[in-house]
């Protein structure tokens, strides 16, 4: 075996692949099954030639050395470096002699002998060691140094290194798999272990010294891990040695060729930045500065760290152990108070213990830090400041660690509930067995169930707990404030609320909090069935129930249903554990029970009150019967009515009340089961049951009393009839006296009129007395008495009354007409009254033709009336209200003298002037004055109608701007008055008023133009204002926007002025109002033309806009920044799209049909990228609509063959189902036709459709 091992690396067996022939030759078949060990060694060496000699005294000699005849020293030297592979000891001696000769001559670098350069050889670099031993002066040696390169930055050096690496890679090949396999083999097996330098113990000791202290509880586990790492270090060490040897040998190309390795893996390039660099001086200065100012390694700093680790590292602002020891869950207010107490206690401990103790350390161990602050250096104050800044930084980091750990502990406390509390369909209290944190009450608030406190308030408490931890660490004084009394307002830095660490913690806790709000909200569904108790619906139901008539059995059933609800509510959970929250539903349950109890009480009290009212009604009826029966009638009518009432009560009313008493018995039985009646109600019930016996006796006594009163009434009636007859006979005598009266003086006339008035009054009283007598006779069932004399007397009195009344009226009024001022007389009215009087007298002359006295009076007054009628023409003329001064001048001119009436002028004075001679001329002047006066009145009337006529204004939307409304009355009145004014101007009597009438006509026409222009401007302004209030529209139509601004300014100014005085005459009298309105209408016409052109361009860009009206399109274009505004109009643009699917970022991801079928888009559409051009992204929607429908149909066709049809139909939109089904149906029909199996295929479509239709 030893011999075989020595042969293993002998050159005798180093053959095989390099010879190009099969070696060793194959064994005969008889020996091939079990080859010898020697043959196996030769066979292995033929495939893997050895690279290390194993039979030499020198270890790790390359196999290639067998080709050379070198001494051991030369062999070692040659293998030390490839550059020394041609090194000979003799050549070294020659080089030393040449070098001595060179130094003796003290020649410069340029005079180095050629022999010296040849001796060193071109393949050997010059050694700097030779020049270092020279005895030349310093300035002579510097001439031999190579000039240094300019300082290069690391970036520049890396660029050069990368360039060199690229050049090397370009000239080298990547190793093949065979190269890698052979290379791995030589590393793992070709270098024997005994040739490797052993692993030294000091190296392992140095590695072990870098370990951290071991906790006692983990010592066993760490020992196993340490042993594994030790073995790994050793393996890596020996592997590295083997690899280095193999890599060095394979640096010789001949060796690579011999072992058939064309290329080896390239090591990772070593990029070393070498000096000098541009910032070398800065680096040195920084190193020197740090050596002076790096104070973190000061002993006092180490002591501060040790104190913190030993005493305060476990300190927390909120101690979870104390939190768990509390009775959880807590109300949010209690939790907030607990966190506040904990944070305050920790802050006090830091402020009163930690900081004073650290200050005492500085005092006790001042030798650890005072020497660092030398008093002799001028920079000592700055160094002191830096030192305490370093102390503050260390303590700030410690304080930050306390805050961070406290925040993380509190986070972990809440993250125990991060899974949330979504309990699914049915709540199970055993699902959440962890201790809850916050107790939330369920309470009723305005008919809704609310959480008290609300989840927002709960989150504010939790968020406040984190903020309290942070705030409690703020404003802690630095150590200088404790050491030096004259220093204050210096504080340690701590965690800020806006740091990402804090926001991440708070965000995670908030996410867990949000997950825990699902369960409580879902649990409210338990109370959904009792919502009617909270939202007053149940009260309304009870109200509706009580409004209707129900039997006692229905009332009992209603009360039982309410009792069942009460029992259900009373059995609900009081405390509901839901992970982070615990719901306290006790108060809500009690409230619901109270609501149910109130409903029940309301029904019962309704019946109690109803029973009380009905019983009181029964008693009231009995009392009414009793009181009415006891009453004393004052008239016959009352007597008869009372007799009928007693009869009706005895025969009918009493029996109805008895039925009501029976119902009261049933009500009393019902109430005894559900209510406790008060004493007054019990007494009332007793009275109801006792009334019947008492009322029968009362009725019988009243019947006897009324019989006696009836007899007395009949006797009184007979007496009244006799007295009336006597009075009528006396009146007949008084009327007959007027047949002989014929005296017609004023006093006699007045006396006769007074007498007739008294007779008329007596006759009217007699008529009333007769009616009362007949009424009583009817009531007492007696025959009515007739008095024909009464009607005869009334007929006889009437002509005498007309005669003397007419005579009296004419006598008194004619005096006023003749001798009173005529300015206030109405000639037309006087004429009518005279006609009436004349006709009356003419009729009476015929009536009294056989009575001398009355006939004489009638004829006398008839002639007097005829005589007064002759003055009517003059009276009509002078009493004309239209007479003006110009008319009196005409009258004066006609009669030939001046006629100027004053306010006291009378008709008699005018008659004395003999104006009656000119009656015809006066009538013409009066007629002309009447016409002119009529025109003047019409003018004044029109002006009065316009004086208080005002414009009506209404608010425009929710703005302060007003608009004109309800102008129909103004337009109708304006049109009517324009026609009237134009008609008046055509009258022949208009001349005195012509100028005024013309001015008024111009005013009316101007108002008509202004009103027409105003209404036109307002209508167009109302249409365009919402459009041009959008900045998007103004940006796209700047010229039209500018013009609309002018119109808007004009319009608002006009309306503002009109609002100051809304009267039409004043509002339309603004300066230049018509011109401004006409200019505005011109601008509005131009704006509408530009708007139509703009809309036409949009429609041409996106033709589907033609399906929208102008108003709908403008609504879209005025809100281009909000893509959601297009949603209501999509149905008109795209027949199949009802709306689009938008993300929260307003990205369009799909389309939804009217049937709620959704088709996702193959790509997202970003409306924001269109920069307000709605038509641009709508074109994308149109394109993606086609592409997406094509895509979804393609996917549906693919899945048709993979999914059962019944399930497939429900998964895809209807259009996909129809299209894919048609494709496969056509394909299957074609196959059936080609295969002549159509009768077999015929039932298949029905079989496919039937399950879907049946479902």
TrEMBL record:
Keywords attached to this Swiss-Prot or TrEMBL record, sorted alphabetically, are: Coiled coil
Q: Where is the signal peptide?
A: none
Coiled coil feature spans: 714-783
Q: What is this protein called?
A: Dynein heavy chain linker domain-containing protein
Cite the InterPro entries for this sequence.
DHC, Dynein_2_N, Dynein_heavy_linker, Dynein_linker_3
- The UniProt record lists the Dynein heavy chain linker domain at 790-1195
Mention any Pfam family matching this sequence.
DHC_N2
Recall the taxonomic lineage recorded for the source organism: Eukaryota, Metazoa, Chordata, Craniata, Vertebrata
Keyword Coiled coil included in the entry's annotation: yes
This protein's species is Ilyodon furcidens (goldbreast splitfin)
| Renumbered residue ranges of the record's region Disordered | 104-155
Q: Does the keyword Coiled coil apply?
A: yes
